[in-house]
Design goal:
about 160 residues, alpha+beta, Ubiquitin-like (UB roll), DNA polymerase, domain 1, five-stranded mixed β-sheet, 6 helices, about 15% strand, binds FE2/S2 (inorganic) cluster
């Protein structure tokens, strides 16, 4: 099929097997290797991207389901003001160790910060509950998102 969609604010198209996974299209056809594969079964969140504004695990999305939609990857989020704010907070709290999980956490955190952003630990934990980190024990990740929520509130005053 000819697949057309918006990728990180740019219209793109390519000939692709309709059953090819969105994860593979992003990595292999567009070189967006920030989107990671770990479990390949929708369990770890390493492959999280935004599809029409909502977080999805791209290992479970086939090409046909991206047709005419908007896809935003961690690379796209890293260019947005709230993405830059999150990256700065993760950096300041040393919340990243091996870094493999980070792009997925960035996407899920961005979705929370953009659509809610309340500095509420339970809500943040729920928002990130689909993402697994094997290194950090999570506390510094939660601290980072909390810091970003507070800073966003300060910016909005
Ligand atoms: S690789 Fe997609 S959820 Fe784990
Ligand atoms: S920092 Fe290594 S998996 Fe999260």
């Amino acid at each position: 099929m000819k697949l057309e969609f918006i990728l990180n604010d740019k219209a793109v198209s390519l000939e692709v097997d309709p059953m090819k996974r969105l994860l593979d299209i992003l990595r292999e056809d567009f070189g967006l290797t920030g989107t990671k594969e770990s479990c390949g079964e929708g369990e770890c969140g390493a492959c999280t991207v935004l599809l029409d504004g909502k977080p999805v695990t791209s290992c479970l999305v086939n090409a046909v389901h991206a047709e005419n939609k908007q896809v935003v990857t961690s690379e796209g989020i890293a260019q947005k003001p709230l993405g830059k704010l999150l990256i700065a907070c993760f950096d300041e709290t040393n919340a990243v160790q091996c870094g493999f999980c980070f792009p997925g956490f960035l996407v899920s955190s961005y979705y929370y910060l953009k659509n809610d952003g309340e500095p509420n630990l339970e809500k943040i934990k729920t928002a990130l509950s689909g993402n697994i980190c094997r290194c950090t024990g999570y506390q510094k990740i939660f601290d980072s998102v909390m810091m970003a929520c507070h800073r966003k509130q300060e910016q909005e005053k």
